[in-house]
């Protein structure tokens, strides 16, 4: 082994020279774009552009293929003018202008402006066909050049080129054996300007040579972005818009100008695009199939949408019908006509149609369409699959996998049943990505509010995935019937639970009740208390002859369908469960309608005592019918009056778990006695203890597939530790399990919440070794069923991996104790890691230096070949531990080290030392640590964006406040920087994560404030933040914990807490950013999408911040940093809080996530979203997150 040479540069201020080591700080900070905030409404543009929120507007999205289709197929008459806007919500210039464009367009009678965003995958990704420096590569810019080279041939005459140019080569294309056709302007390199956003132009294909007849580029007319934001350039910009629209306008007799323009609508585009791509005959002698769409078809309700528009739709609290399919796909052609027909039958106003191929597959436009609709190759460098996101191992794979993993947790398809998956590498993060696969066409109904009986998120309500080309299906009655019937089954449930149903009560002594609103819905019902549901006939509009009572109505269980047989009239049925039921009340003759169930809300008990549940809303219910007494009974007992305090306070507290029925009592009106109403049933759910007496049993063979858990029951459910969804237990044991950790809990029932989960470990199987003797008189030790072989010598098994214990010997040359991990030990660790991973668990391997001749200076070295095999052979984390430090390397860090060009052995050096006298004078007597990693003689200076986790044992000194323990990093410039780290009492150690291998000091920086008492609920939080220079006082050694914190103060606190630096003054900043301490922070927050502000580009930094705004800013910052805490199944939900309905739309997603992640707990069942936030509360929120 060749030992590392330790270089010792002079760092005079703090550290002893013999313990100073060089460090190269990794560079490369990646910018992250934030997600936009969805609106409460389904209006996409209103949610992406605040200036359009709640406004009537003229905009609609334009996918790439829609744009290509329009530019190719537009009419050529003088009035065939199409108005197009190039711009995206991620551009501040487009944000600033779009409201004015809308106002002026409407004044000219314009009804449609189609908006095209060059970020084809949405604003939050860096996939931009107009960006040659995109991390996805330059080749995709061909699609932008195509727009100018093929269609917008005078684009350069209407743009300045200030945003740059893009180029591509174009050649002639043969159209038959003797003829060729050349691109516009001939062969050669075509260079087009990148239009400066917003680029608004009028297109008329008939204007040969100059199809852009008028345009307005950028914001020069307004004096730049600042001119619009400050208002100084608004009038000039409006005048420029008017001048643009004047060129296609006439003045009517009423002296009003009206623009002559055309609209590309779904009525034209959907039939046109599918007929254009219609597949050619299977055989040359076969007849050509008829057009897919004809004049006899109902209006097209299928709407081609961008990926961002689809994500917006899937984020709404309403159902959506989604068609993942495309005009280029023969199988989509085989069903699209029937989808449009059935959608019209069921009153679906919009089917969201998204194409896997972000450009619509234009590079693969088949020759069959060329005689009618030419899009010649002309040297095409991107084929029809170049922008196909559902392709494994391409740069854009993660766009598809992210969509599936984020929005489709209960996806069922042919491929999920075959376990076919899409895999790849995200080029931005270098992380591996993987998701389930689905095929086109895939049609599904989606409602994000739906959960299954195990409380697992199940937003997909049904699907149809039927393969077959139009040329094969149009003349096949079996294939046609299969598609129509499957789609009718799918669209018979367009809601997560039934809505819009009406119950008519009994109005005569011998009358009956009726339920209406059931048409075209696959429903079933039962009288509450009976066991069997009754199916509603598919052709029914009413349910008649109903007796008095409460009826439970739900969507019936139904199948989804998929098949790969083109012509067969059958398909594989995949079951979807019934929906949650809703109650409908048929009141009897001369009795009051029951209490309004929608006004009542229940809060469950909070602990196993089950005695503090609540019913909320009784006051409002009583006030609806004040002449009646409000009565209740519990668990089927006798009815009694609801306590007066519950009516007065609107909250009935201290309730034991159970079923409470609330009704209006009997009432005498004149000479008539009105009977008591039907009772509304409310369940105050209780808690049950976690399962006990469970045991994991190891598999009995090397297949590792028949382990089990015993001691369970059918009222329980389980999940593997690495899975999100629970599975029902079907007997008294759970069988066919791989080794690993599992969680078992009692299921939620009508009366109880799901219990806390009990963790159970299923051990690994190891074959029994026996004697292995070849004769002689040795005893025969057969062992028992669970007798497993021992791991390799020197390797000790741990819960999720193994440990290798090695010793270190002093080296006189370097002054270090050197420990060497040999090939055999590494092989033993790798073997155990593979076994753990085979069981579906994450493996952790420990290299423990047990004895060292010099215990404060240790080098651990691993042979390079063995290290590389360990890294490539498993995804295990590796922990190197000594008596004074432990360093954990994750998979990304290990692979980065393994890839280093220096092929020498891998060494980790850990040294514990102390400060010089000068350093002690500055910081006190604080411990110092060096953490260095080498490949051969090369210092490792980059971990590919990853970090290592360091743990340093530490004993608190007399009187030390643990929250004021901090970690300093000494830069190579000799400066001290505080890193994110803290003292962990349960470990007796200081921990931190770092990407820099350097020197670290455990420091102490206690800051006291006169108005912060040590026993105050916020004292720890303020001490923690102040020690890290994150929170300052308000002067005179005071913190003012009860004072409101302003929006500017919190933003500065938030960005400092997460290491986001302020930026230089910019014209893109908020109009009220000023020139003060928060100016640069506002600029950074705006650019990153953390802060959106108010109308007129204001942030109101001096205003007090509301709780909902605080949590929204926090959520966005954590999203940008990819540090958003995970949500936990079975924890609190937004619906648990009585004032959840008062949360503003822009804040709902943020607050819902933080509630489910247990960051936000509320108080007394309320979130108080509109209350202001105190400085103490803001400090506590950040402390809760930073100290996790």
Task: Describe what you observe in this structure.
The chain is an alpha+beta fold and 1188 residues long. The protein has 7 domains: 17-23 and 795-1004, no CATH class; 44-264, Glutaredoxin, CATH 3.40.30; 268-491, Glutaredoxin (3-Layer(aba) Sandwich), CATH 3.40.30.10; 502-560 and 572-586, Immunoglobulin-like; 597-684, Sandwich (Immunoglobulin-like); 695-762, no CATH class; 1019-1186, no CATH class. The strands form 14 sheets. The protein has a 16-stranded mixed beta sheet that branches. Helix 16 (823-838) packs parallel to helix 17, helix 20 crosses helix 25 (1175-1186) and helix 23 packs across helix 24 (1145-1156). The radius of gyration is 34 Å and the shape is globular. The model is unreliable at 1-42, 366-372 and 768-790 (pLDDT under 50).
Q: What topology does this entry show?
A:
Blueprint: H1 44-48, E1 59-61, H2 64-73, E2 82-86, H3 92-107, E3 113-116, H4 142-151, E4 165-170, E5 173-174, E6 180-181, E7 188-193, E8 199-203, E9 212-217, H5 225-230, H6 234-246, E10 249-251, E11 257-259, H7 266-276, E12 302-304, H8 307-314, E13 320-324, H9 330-345, E14 351-354, H10 397-407, H11 414-417, E15 421-425, E16 432-436, E17 442-446, E18 460-466, H12 470-473, H13 477-491, E19 502-504, E20 513-516, E21 523-527, E22 534-535, E23 542-546, E24 549-555, E25 558-563, E26 572-576, E27 582-586, E28 601-603, E29 613-616, H14 618-624, E30 630-634, E31 640-641, H15 644-649, E32 651-655, E33 658-664, E34 667-669, E35 672-674, E36 680-684, E37 695-697, E38 707-710, E39 716-720, E40 727-728, E41 733-737, E42 740-746, E43 758-762, E44 795-798, E45 801-811, E46 816-820, H16 823-838, E47 844-852, E48 857-862, H17 864-873, E49 877-881, E50 886-889, H18 891-898, E51 906-914, H19 917-923, E52 927-935, E53 938-939, E54 948-953, E55 965-970, E56 976-979, E57 981-984, E58 989-994, E59 999-1004, H20 1019-1027, H21 1047-1057, ...
Parallel strand pairs: 1-3, 2-3, 12-14, 13-14, 18-25, 45-47, 46-48, 47-49
Antiparallel strand pairs: 2-8, 4-7, 5-6, 8-9, 10-11, 13-17, 15-16, 17-18, 19-20, 20-23, 21-22, 21-24, 24-27, 25-26, 28-29, 29-32, 30-31, 30-33, 33-36, 34-35, 37-38, 38-41, 39-40, 39-42, 42-43, 44-45, 45-46, 48-51, 49-50, 50-54, 51-52, 52-53, 52-59, 54-58, 55-56, 55-59, 57-58
Biased composition (Low complexity): 779-789
InterPro entries: SLH_dom, Thioredoxin-like_sf
Region (Disordered): 764-797
């Amino acid at each position: 082994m060749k030992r590392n040479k330790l270089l010792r540069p002079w760092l005079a201020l703090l550290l002893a020279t013999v313990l100073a080591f060089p460090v190269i700080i990794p560079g490369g900070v990646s910018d992250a774009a934030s997600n936009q905030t969805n609106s409460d409404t389904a209006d996409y543009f209103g949610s992406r552009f605040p200036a359009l929120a709640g406004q009537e507007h003229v905009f609609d999205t334009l996918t790439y293929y829609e744009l290509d289709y329009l530019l190719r197929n537009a009419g050529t008459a003088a009035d065939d003018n199409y108005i197009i806007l190039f711009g995206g919500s991620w551009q501040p210039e487009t944000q600033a202008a779009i409201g004015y464009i809308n106002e002026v367009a409407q004044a000219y009678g314009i009804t449609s402006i189609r908006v095209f965003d060059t970020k084809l995958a949405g604003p939050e990704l860096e996939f931009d066909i107009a960006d040659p420096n995109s991390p996805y590569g330059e080749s995709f810019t061909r699609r932008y050049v195509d727009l100018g080279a093929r269609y917008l041939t005078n684009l350069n005459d209407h743009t300045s080129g200030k945003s740059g140019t893009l180029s591509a080569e174009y050649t002639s294309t043969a159209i038959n054996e003797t003829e060729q056709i050349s691109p516009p302007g001939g062969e050669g390199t075509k260079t087009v300007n990148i239009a400066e956003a917003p680029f608004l132009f009028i297109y008329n294909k008939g204007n040969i040579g100059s199809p852009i007849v008028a345009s307005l580029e950028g914001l020069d007319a307004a004096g730049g972005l600042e001119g619009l934001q400050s208002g100084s350039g608004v009038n000039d910009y409006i005048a420029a818009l008017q001048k643009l629209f004047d060129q296609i306008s006439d003045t009517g007799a009423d002296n009003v100008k009206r623009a002559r323009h055309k609209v590309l609508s779904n009525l034209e585009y959907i039939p046109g695009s599918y007929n254009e791509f219609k597949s050619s005959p299977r055989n040359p002698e076969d007849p050509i199939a008829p057009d897919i769409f004809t004049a006899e078809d109902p209006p097209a309700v299928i709407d081609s949408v961008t990926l961002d528009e689809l994500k917006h739709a899937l984020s709404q609290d309403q159902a959506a019908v989604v068609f993942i399919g495309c005009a280029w796909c023969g199988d989509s052609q085989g069903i699209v006509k029937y989808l449009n027909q059935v959608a019209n039958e069921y009153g679906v106003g919009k089917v969201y149609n998204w194409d896997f191929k972000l450009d619509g597959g234009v590079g693969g436009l088949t020759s069959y369409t060329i005689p009618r609709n030419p899009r010649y190759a002309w040297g095409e460098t991107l084929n029809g699959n170049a922008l196909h996101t559902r392709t494994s191992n391409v740069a854009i794979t993660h766009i598809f996998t992210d969509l599936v993993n984020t929005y489709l947790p209960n996806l069922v398809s042919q491929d999920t049943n075959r376990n076919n998956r899409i895999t790849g590498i995200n080029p931005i993060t270098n992380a591996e990505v993987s998701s389930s696969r689905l095929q086109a066409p895939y049609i599904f109904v989606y409602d994000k509010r739906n959960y299954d009986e195990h409380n697992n998120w199940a937003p997909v309500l049904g699907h149809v995935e039927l393969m077959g080309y139009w040329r094969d299906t149009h003349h096949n009655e079996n294939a046609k019937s299969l598609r129509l019937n499957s789609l009718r089954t799918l669209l018979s449930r367009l809601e997560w639970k039934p809505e819009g149903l009406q119950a008519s009560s009994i109005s005569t002594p011998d009358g009956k009740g009726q339920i209406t609103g059931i048409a075209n819905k696959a429903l079933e019902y039962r009288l509450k208390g009976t066991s069997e549901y009754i199916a509603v006939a598919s052709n029914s509009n009413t349910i008649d002859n109903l007796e008095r009572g409460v009826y439970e109505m739900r969507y019936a269980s139904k199948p989804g369908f998929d098949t790969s047989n083109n012509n067969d009239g059958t398909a594989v049925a995949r079951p979807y469960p019934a929906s949650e039921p809703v109650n409908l009340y048929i009141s009897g003759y001369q009795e009051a309608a029951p209490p309004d169930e929608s006004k009542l809300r229940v809060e469950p008990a909070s602990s196993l005592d089950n005695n503090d549940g609540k019913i909320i809303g009784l006051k409002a219910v009583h006030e609806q019918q004040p002449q009646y007494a409000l009565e209740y009974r519990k668990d089927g007992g006798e009815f009694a009056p609801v306590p007066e305090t519950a009516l007065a306070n609107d909250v009935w507290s201290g309730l034991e778990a159970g079923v409470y029925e609330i009704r209006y009592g009997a009432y005498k009106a004149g000479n008539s006695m009105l009977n008591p109403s039907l009772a509304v049933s409310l369940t105050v759910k209780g808690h049950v203890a976690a399962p006990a007496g469970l045991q994991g049993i190891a598999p009995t063979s090397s297949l590792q597939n028949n382990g089990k858990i015993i001691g369970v029951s059918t009222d329980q459910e389980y999940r593997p530790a690495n899975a999100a969804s629970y599975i029902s237990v079907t007997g008294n044991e759970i069988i066919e399990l791989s080794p690993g950790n599992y969680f078992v809990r009692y299921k939620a029932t009508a009366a109880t919440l799901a219990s806390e989960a009990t963790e159970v470990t299923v051990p690994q199987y190891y074959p029994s070794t026996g004697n292995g003797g070849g004769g002689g008189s040795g005893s025969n030790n057969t062992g028992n069923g669970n007798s497993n072989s021992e791991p390799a010598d020197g390797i000790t098994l741990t819960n999720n991996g193994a440990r290798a214990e090695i010793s270190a010997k002093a080296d006189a040359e370097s002054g270090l104790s050197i420990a060497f991990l040999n090939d055999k030990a590494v092989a033993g660790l790798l073997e155990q890691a593979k076994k753990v991973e085979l069981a579906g668990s994450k493996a952790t391997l420990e290299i423990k230096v047990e004895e060292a001749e010099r215990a404060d200076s240790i080098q651990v070295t691993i042979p390079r070949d063995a290290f590389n095999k360990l890294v490539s052979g498993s995804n295990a984390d590796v922990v190197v531990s000594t008596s004074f430090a432990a360093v954990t390397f994750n998979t990304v860090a290990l692979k980065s080290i393994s890839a280093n060009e220096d092929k020498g052995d891998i060494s980790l050096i850990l040294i514990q030392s102390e400060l010089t006298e000068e350093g002690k004078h500055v910081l006190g007597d604080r411990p110092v640590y060096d953490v260095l990693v080498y490949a051969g003689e090369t210092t490792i200076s980059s971990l590919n964006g990853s970090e290592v986790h360091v743990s340093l044992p530490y004993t608190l000194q007399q009187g030390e406040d643990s929250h004021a323990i901090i970690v300093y990093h000494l830069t190579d410039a000799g400066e001290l920087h505080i890193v994110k780290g803290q003292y962990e009492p349960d470990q007796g150690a200081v921990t931190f994560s770092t990407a820099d291998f350097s020197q670290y000091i455990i420091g102490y920086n206690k800051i006291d404030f006169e108005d912060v008492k040590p026993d105050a609920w916020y004292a720890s939080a303020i001490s923690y933040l102040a020690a890290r220079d994150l929170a300052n006082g308000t002067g005179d050694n005071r913190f003012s914990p009860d004072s409101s914190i302003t929006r500017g103060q919190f933003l500065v606190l938030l960005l400092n807490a997460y290491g986001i630096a302020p930026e230089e003054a910019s014209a893109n900043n908020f109009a009220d950013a000023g020139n003060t301490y928060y100016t640069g922070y506002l600029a950074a927050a705006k650019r990153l999408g953390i802060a959106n502000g108010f109308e007129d580009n204001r942030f109101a930094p001096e205003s007090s911040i509301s709780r909902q705004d605080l949590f929204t800013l926090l959520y966005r910052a954590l999203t940008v940093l990819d540090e958003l805490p995970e949500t936990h199944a079975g924890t609190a939900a937004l619906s648990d809080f009585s004032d959840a309905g008062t949360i503003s739309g822009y804040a709902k997603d943020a607050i819902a996530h933080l509630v489910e992640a247990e960051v936000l707990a509320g108080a007394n069942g309320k979130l108080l979203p509109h209350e202001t936030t105190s400085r103490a509360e803001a400090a506590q929120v950040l402390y809760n997150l930073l100290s996790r």
